[in-house]
Design a protein that fits this description.
alpha/beta, 2 domains, six-stranded antiparallel beta barrel, five-stranded parallel beta sheet, 7 helices, 11 strands, about 25% helix
Length: about 270
């Protein structure tokens, strides 16, 4: 299957005041194998230009080199998103409309209409990361983690779930017992960290953490340093960074997190 193709918008709907769900169709979607927490790259065209796809095969390194070779004025902006739901030949992607100045993805989603076209790379099964094996799994994240948590709940029998959102209007229907945490003006991540610190977790529990990078880092340090969870039993991803975008250079902490994820990956564990 070609991992790169165009996506066309077929439906746009607000599921909460700050979340817009966009349905896409496009070549190759009917060939995708589904799995929970399925991520892909979306390619947003520069204003007033059509989206230009890299001319390369499915090898990720050659594909990325071809992407960088596109002239800067024509190169699409690339952002990572999680598939919220899918049918045979469509996918749903949720976009959180953050407060404050809009980045290119948020600006596009806020104005998206049926017929608009983006590019995609993936989802690629090489980047699939199964949940750590455990009888109880902690799922914790902010509103950007909701699409992944919704799909992960389909395969977790005993989950302890905490989701921090701006306010009650941002809650979404999810299966199971989800504890919603409303910021209501509090510092981002503070409610989530406090709730996880107070949560009763059985011995041998595993964890999945996602959302704002510094919050994810603090949660992981608590679970490893104060709760004694094994590092290999925690799957974690910083989806976004305060005051920084995906185009900004990684910080020293970002690089350390990436190195630990690589060390804990199944491929490395077998070497």
């Amino acid at each position: 299957m070609n991992a790169t193709s165009l996506l066309e918008v077929t439906a746009v709907r607000r599921v909460t005041p700050r979340t817009v769900r966009i349905t896409f169709t496009g070549p190759g979607l009917d060939e995708l194998e589904p799995w929970p927490d399925q991520q892909l790259k979306l390619l947003f065209p520069p204003p007033g230009r059509p989206v230009r796809l890299p001319a390369a095969d499915n090898d990720v390194l050659r594909w990325y080199q071809a992407y960088l070779a596109i002239p800067a004025e024509e190169r699409p902006v690339m952002r990572s998103y999680t598939v919220r739901a899918r049918t045979r030949d469509t996918i749903d992607v949720d976009f959180v409309l953050h407060a404050g100045p809009a980045g290119p993805a948020t600006a596009w989603a806020a104005q998206a209409a049926v017929g608009d076209v983006l590019g995609r790379y993936g989802p690629d099964a090489a980047y699939r990361r199964p949940l750590p094996a455990a009888e109880t799994v902690l799922l914790a994240g902010d509103e950007t983690a909701l699409p992944a948590i919704a799909t992960l709940l389909s395969e977790v029998d005993n989950a302890v779930v905490f989701v921090e959102v701006p306010d009650a209007a941002e809650e979404q229907p999810l299966p199971g017992n989800v504890r919603w945490l409303h910021r209501d003006g509090a510092e981002h991540g503070s409610r989530l960290l406090a709730a996880v610190r107070e949560a009763a977790l059985p011995a041998g529990a595993a964890a999945w953490l996602a959302g704002e990078a510094s919050t994810v880092r603090a949660l992981r340090r608590h679970l490893v340093g104060e709760r004694g969870l094994a590092k290999g039993g925690i799957e974690f991803t910083g989806y976004w960074r305060r005051k920084l975008t995906q185009d900004d250079a990684p910080t020293a902490e970002d690089l350390a997190d990436a190195a630990e994820k690589l060390e804990d990956s199944p491929a490395c564990a077998g070497n």
